[in-house]
């Protein structure tokens, strides 16, 4: 009986539980269904909204397109606001020009602007004038004019376009217009006819690009044209008529710029003896050039026609160094990683002709060397007195092959590589940095016997962000008096020779290899120590193994550290050579104070490296250090 009762009760509870489970299942199924339906409904709604939004976007795009096509209006309120902001900012002493970074940068004059230029001034609407002014603000020279003048010019400016070899201005003709170059390049020829601009060895005296202007002299002086201007490629100009030029006073700006050049030159010691007339004549032929960082100013200083005066910023002088003249033994100094990072250069002289570099080059501006330039190493000393360079010994064997000093200037030596390509090994090395008031190229105006060796060596001029004045060598030469020439002769100190630069490079490279190897070894050591701790049969790795790297690190450390006196400061942050008292290789002192120590290795500056307590033990074991 009790058993029956028990069974009954059990079956009843089982029934109840089953019923509950069923109920639960059905309710969760319902819930899922509901969720699913909501999801589908939401998705439908979303696609509907999406299609509506894309339709609206398309309609607006079309309206904008039609407006631009019909009325040429692109100058929105937002654009105007932005221009105002930029104008306000322009007055401040910014380190960069915001206009250089405008996303609306045009490489050629757009069709709406051509249409505007074709209209008579009185037919141009206010918005069209604003559009034109906004476009013209891309030109550096235009930005120098006041906002009022900009609008007045935008109202009267006309458009002209000429193909390659077309003469824009012919020397001796009457001047009728002033030209602003918007796209393309033109050559200035003073002697002979325009064909000289296209003869290889007789280059034009000057090349003008986007943002440059010409044709002001004849208008201001009321004389004949002083030079012939010929298009070197398809070139677009914005043109200002002589009457407008004089009426609006544009000539005052041109005159002011010339005066600025004149005053700058007058402030330089080298031109102190010059008459005002001579200085003015030279300044008139000069041009202002503003360059962003990493733009190449001159690819080959030997072929250059110009002397460069740094007005603001910094101009770097870079030399392409032939590393293949170093013998095999010296070449071994490059660790595999270091070797990879140096550029192989093909015989046609261009630093960027290898396929992967070409690829990169295509992506960047034609005139930029940035990726190669990163490799350059800075040498502050422009004299050949190497004793002044930190830690350099002139007795150091250069590793130059006999009779293989640099015969052909800047031409790298080429070898056939494993892939049957002719390759050379070179690196760019910065030999000088010119700052405001310094000049590059004055040496060239001396007679050949007085020129220093640098006049026959090719250097590359690279802007580190600078404003330059560019004047033809011939123009300065024609006006230079005896005392100026004597001053130039006196000041001409050549840059370090290639042999010296090679030495500097080797030393730098050795230091770099050493650092890399040291870091590798520390990492390697730490990893192996972990293994060694677990498995006693494995030998504890040696940290210093003088056979495995080309430079004996112990010697290096001693060499680096030897001039240091153990001081009581734990770590000095100034740039003079100093060491914390607890670490001195020479004195073999190592005071264990905590688990972390700072190993300082100096080479013309201080470098820090953290080492752990195991490292300290190891240094002691390898007898580099004793407690
Ligand atoms: N050395 C020069 N470098 C650049 N531009 C020049 C040089 N000499 C003359 N020009 C320009 O060439 C123009 C020729 O016509 P203009 O004489 O009216 O004005 C001249 C200057 O604007």
Automatic annotation (TrEMBL):
Residue intervals of the Cyclic nucleotide-binding domain: 141-248
PROSITE patterns (alphabetical): CNMP_BINDING_2, CNMP_BINDING_3
Pfam families: cNMP_binding
InterPro entries (alphabetical): cNMP-bd_CS, cNMP-bd_dom, cNMP-bd_dom_sf, RmlC-like_jellyroll
Name of the protein described by the UniProt record: Cyclic nucleotide-binding domain-containing protein 2 isoform X2
Organism: Hydra vulgaris
């Amino acid at each position: 009986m009790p058993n029956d009762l028990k069974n009954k009760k059990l079956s009843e509870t089982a029934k109840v539980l089953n019923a509950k489970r069923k109920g639960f299942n059905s309710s969760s199924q319902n819930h899922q269904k509901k969720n699913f339906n909501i999801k589908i409904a939401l998705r439908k709604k979303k696609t509907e909204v999406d299609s509506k939004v894309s339709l609206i976007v398309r309609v607006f795009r079309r309206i904008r397109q039609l407006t631009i096509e019909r009325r040429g209006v692109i100058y929105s309120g937002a654009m105007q606001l932005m221009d105002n902001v930029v104008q306000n900012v322009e007055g401040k002493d910014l380190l960069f020009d915001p206009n250089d970074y405008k996303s609306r940068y045009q490489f050629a004059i757009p069709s709406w602007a051509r249409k505007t230029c074709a209209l008579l001034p009185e037919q141009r609407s206010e918005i069209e004038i604003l559009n034109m002014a906004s476009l013209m603000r891309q030109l550096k020279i235009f930005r120098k004019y006041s906002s009022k003048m900009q609008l007045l010019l935008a109202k009267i400016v006309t458009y002209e376009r000429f193909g390659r070899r077309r003469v824009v201005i012919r020397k001796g003709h009457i001047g009728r217009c002033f030209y602003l170059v918007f796209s393309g390049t033109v050559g200035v020829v003073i002697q002979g006819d325009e064909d000289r601009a296209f003869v290889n060895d007789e280059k034009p005296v000057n090349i003008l690009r986007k943002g440059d202007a010409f044709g002001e002299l004849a208008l201001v002086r009321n004389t004949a044209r002083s030079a012939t201007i010929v298009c070197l490629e398809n070139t677009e100009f914005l043109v200002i008529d002589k009457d407008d030029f004089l009426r609006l006073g544009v000539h005052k700006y041109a005159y002011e710029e010339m005066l600025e050049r004149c005053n700058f030159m007058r402030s330089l010691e080298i031109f102190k003896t010059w008459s005002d007339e001579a200085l003015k004549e030279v300044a008139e032929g000069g041009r202002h050039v503003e360059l962003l960082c990493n733009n190449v100013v001159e690819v080959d200083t030997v072929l250059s026609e110009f002397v460069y005066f740094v007005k603001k910023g910094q101009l770097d002088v870079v030399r392409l160094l032939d590393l293949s003249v170093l013998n095999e033994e010296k070449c071994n100094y490059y660790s595999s990683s270091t070797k990879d990072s140096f550029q192989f250069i093909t015989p046609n002289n261009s630093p960027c002709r290898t396929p992967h570099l070409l690829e990169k080059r295509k992506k960047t501006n034609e005139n930029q060397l940035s990726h190669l330039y990163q490799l350059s190493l800075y040498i502050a000393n422009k004299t050949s007195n190497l004793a002044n360079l930190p830690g350099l010994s002139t007795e150091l064997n250069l590793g130059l092959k006999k009779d293989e000093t640099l015969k052909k200037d800047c031409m790298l030596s080429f070898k056939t590589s494993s892939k049957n390509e002719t390759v050379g090994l070179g690196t760019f090395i910065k030999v000088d940095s010119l700052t405001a008031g310094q000049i590059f190229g004055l040496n060239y105006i001396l007679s050949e016997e007085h020129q220093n060796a640098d006049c026959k060596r090719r250097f590359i001029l690279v802007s580190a962000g600078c404003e330059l004045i560019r004047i033809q060598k011939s123009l300065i030469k024609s006006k230079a008096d005896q005392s100026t020439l004597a001053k130039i002769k006196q000041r001409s100190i050549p840059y370090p020779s290639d042999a010296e630069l090679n030495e500097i490079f080797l030393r730098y490279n050795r230091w770099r290899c050493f650092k890399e190897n040291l870091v590798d070894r520390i990492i390697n050591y730490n990893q192996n120590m972990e293994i060694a701790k677990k498995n006693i049969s494995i030998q504890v790795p040696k940290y210093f193994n003088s056979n495995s790297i080309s430079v004996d690190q112990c010697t290096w450390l001693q060499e680096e550290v030897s001039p240091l006196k153990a001081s009581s400061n734990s770590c000095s942050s100034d740039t003079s050579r100093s060491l914390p008292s607890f670490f001195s290789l020479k004195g073999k002192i190592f005071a264990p104070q905590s688990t972390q120590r700072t190993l300082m290795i100096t080479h013309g500056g201080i470098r820090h490296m953290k080492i752990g307590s195991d490292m300290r033990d190891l240094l002691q074991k390898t007898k580099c250090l004793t407690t």
